[in-house]
Write a structure and sequence with these properties.
three-stranded mixed beta sheet; alpha+beta; single chain; 27% strand; seven-stranded mixed beta sheet
């Protein structure tokens, strides 16, 4: 692993607002020498709104908090049994022959998710104009299994990141229009027949991200 590889930071179970505040504080304090980091976290139930979010897509939040964020995208749900990895990356930092741009960065994250799913014999795919990863085949073809939302500052520094559904209570997804799409089916690895431990999937995705970012 090269010296430019992001560090993995295990933050455990953490309230969303704590992670959100910490990401912004970390990014505010960055210098050109600050190591990139991947934060692995699991959140108690929360709905988060991206900058493009229409509150009408939150159909019935019940008693789950709804938090406005500064990431891109629409509304999504985070909860127990979901891998969440926040990418605190300086895109202007030269890695190989060039630096990353926003589009390539999104593609890199999505590819790491696809590779992680493939290791569990699950086929994931992109959808044009709809960031995230969707099931590519079988009865759940087209269902969303991973969501993506980022903040990229003018400095080229990023935060927020990616979530992958492993073994969740999927009910709260039916209380919103996920990512602004009415009726979008959402699935997790367990529903697809994969009984995987959350820590194992967390590390698998983190290492696939590092492999593509280093």
């Amino acid at each position: 692993m090269s010296s430019s590889s992001p560090e993995i930071i295990q933050r455990g179970i953490e309230q969303y607002h704590v992670s959100f505040d910490a990401m912004r504080a970390f990014t505010d304090a960055r210098t050109p020498d600050t190591p990139d980091q991947l934060w692995i976290v699991e959140h108690p139930p929360v709905f988060t709104l991206g900058l493009a979010a229409d509150l009408s897509h939150v159909l019935a939040p019940h008693d789950i908090p709804v938090i406005q964020t500064d990431r891109g995208g629409e509304v999504t749900y985070h909860g127990p049994g979901q891998v969440v990895i926040y990418l605190l990356i300086d895109l202007r930092r030269k890695r190989t022959e060039t630096r990353l741009f926003a589009r390539e960065f999104v593609h890199t994250i999505e590819q790491a998710v696809i590779e992680t799913l493939a290791a569990y014999n699950l086929a994931g795919e992109r959808k044009s104009g709809a960031p995230g990863i969707y099931i590519a085949e079988g009865p759940w073809q087209g269902a969303k299994i991973a969501a993506l939302g980022l903040k990229i500052r003018a400095s080229g520094c990023t935060y927020h990141g990616v979530s992958l559904n492993v073994a969740m209570d999927l009910g709260p997804f039916s209380w919103i229009n996920p990512c602004g799409y009415e009726g979008l089916a959402t699935v997790d690895m367990k529903m697809l027949g994969v009984d995987a431990a959350l820590p194992a999937v967390q590390l698998a995705l983190a290492h696939n991200l590092i492999g593509r970012l280093s």
